[in-house]
Amino acid sequence: MELDELKQMSVADLRVKERETREEIFRLRIKLRTNQLDNPANYRKAKRELARILTLIAAQRTR
Fold first, then answer.
1. Total domain count, the chain
2. Contact 14, 57 (CB under 8 A)
3. Cα separation, 16 vs 19, whole angstroms
4. How far is 28 from 17, CA to CA, in rounded Å?
């Protein structure tokens, strides 16, 4: 998901997206550990997306 799209979301929507991304990271981590993950870059992309989401939540909290 693009950063501009994330910036347009409300805090509640970001929380939902955070939960979904954490679940995705969990599934990808299991696949990575069991050597079933085809593309390890997807794991890193998901972690980066979670970091972006958490950063936006923190920034909107301080406003």
1. 1
2. yes
3. 5
4. 16
